[in-house]
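Could you show me just one protein sequence together with its fold in token form as a worked example?
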Amino acid sequence: MRLRHSKSIVRPIIPLFAACLAMLPIGVARADFAVEEATIEQIQAAYLKGTTTAREVTAAYLARIEAYDQQGPMLNAIITVNAQALAQADVLDAQLKKTGKLSGPLHGIPFVAKDNIDSGDLPTSGGSASLANFQPERDATSIERIRKAGGILIAKASLAEFANGGFDSINSRSPGYIRNPYNTAYASGGSSGGTGVAMAANFAVVGLGTDTGISVRAPASINSVVGLRVSHGLVSLDGVMPLNVFWDTVGPMARTVRDTAILLEAIAGPDARDPISQKSKGHVPKRYTAGLKPGSLKGKRLGVLRQIVPADNSDPRVVALMDQAIADLRQAGAEIVDPFAMPELPELTKGWTNFMRLRDDFDGYLAKHPNAPYKSFKDIVASRQYLAPRFEASFTAQANYPYKADEDPTTPEKQQRSEEIRQAFLKAFDVARLDAIVYPQFNFPPKKNGDTYTPLGRDQNLYSSVTGFPALVVPMGFVAPGLPIGLQFFGRPWSEATLFEIGYGYEQATHHRVPPPTTPPLADSFASKFIGTWKLIAIADRDPKTGAQTPAERGAADGQLVYAPNGRLSVQIVRSGRDKLPVGSADGFSSYFGRWELLTAEGCVVHHQDGNLNQSRIGEAGKRYYGFDAQGHLSLTTPPSKRPDGRELSSVFIWERIP
């Protein structure tokens, strides 16, 4: 067991994380609440109902980090675990018990933050051994705002060293690649790979990444989660290690669009500590979640920029996913402009080279931290031994660049080109009357970690970074061997609320997000009680008013239920009494498949039906209220419905686990 707490927090006694778990009351780790795939709303509903506590939820996520980050699949997504997380959860639990109210919109919500964002109680290393023990004096504004909203910083996430990565993430602070939980041989995306993997593997509820060129959107795409690159200036850069302040952004990441929007509500807006954030004045709505409701895609006009997904430089599997995504968007009510073209774009972006600002922008960060072990970026690079070898050449070139950032003679031309690209997109949005432009985040699948030979194809990072416009990535599906791909919605400046509405509509129409196979519910977690194959042994009718149960008139001849650890579901039921079958019941044979979702705050498991022999039921999300008896049998009870004889009854299906 290799735990990576800061020395100032751990002390040389026993591993404090293990000590924290040992101090938990008996039964805490087995609380009847499933943290896997749980949302902010579900968790907080459980808090208010008394089903679980912030301590129990935090402990469950800490246990998952302990089990999977440096053991098992060894995802290597976490640099430092917060040894005070349980104590902070206790404070929130006490407040809720005293007042009966949540302390804020993120009350009791564990989150991770990329380790280039300052935290006053944990080191901030930037993924570099040169800053391994650097302890900022206070939180960055973004973390400060999340904590004020009630969030619990559970860990600092790994990243490419000094955020200098795109397709994978490796650093000198926690050596080794961050591994993709869907297939650990493959890349996690960079540079916010640790946050992306932590979201995918259910190490926390939400997370913070940073995006300069690609660094929120790449790991969101590759790890089947949601990630937003915000409009430049929407979120404060105070306390964030810079790469290029012209492009740097802090962005929210989560497993759902709604949770991503809730997190943005907590961190968006002007900050006196960051002049760049003053651009956001007047552009921050009261709620980014206001439009997240059924039908949110209706009337949205989306342009498909196929010219950047050329057939001769795109994987056909990704193109097929994109085509299906466009069909799904149209089916859900969006107006599709396909193809949407910008003939001037290739010439505008031809020969683009980035700004050389890392050295001077980073020196500005160090100047605000007099306790930092180095006074300049050039000093860090001169140490050599602290650099991940693959970055040494580029860091050395940055450190020795002949011009100061604000005196670089190439800057005016690059700024002019950026403005031309910005204006071209604004004109294209207006002429085509678009709400967003759509394309895959990558037009090729993830590469293997360390693969420097396979052609890269294209990634669509340039446009949002150059223009400063927002871009939202939402899961689009998977390609063999089980690798996620994300769809990007690129919008007008300050259009995050609209992008959330579009992304939410697409998410709810497709439900592509499934948890990875390498990090199933822990053996002692509540969710593990459901996982497995079950045999149907009885069906009963239940009177919802009296609770009385009687054997169903049409008993089951056979049945099988499978709850897979990756969230997939299949059900098959053969009923007797076929002469009494209702219309549309497929001759007594009920069969459907899809995904399952635990809503422990409501005491139910939801069966989302992606396919059904009875086609009229495809797309249904049926609630089944669960229970376990002393023999371990699982009962699933349907909501009451009116029978032909006028009675209101529920059906109770009794299942026995098949060893």
Q: What stands out?
A: Residues 1-30 have pLDDT under 50 and may be disordered. The first strand starts at residue 78 and ends at 81. Residues 411-432 form the longest helix (22 residues).
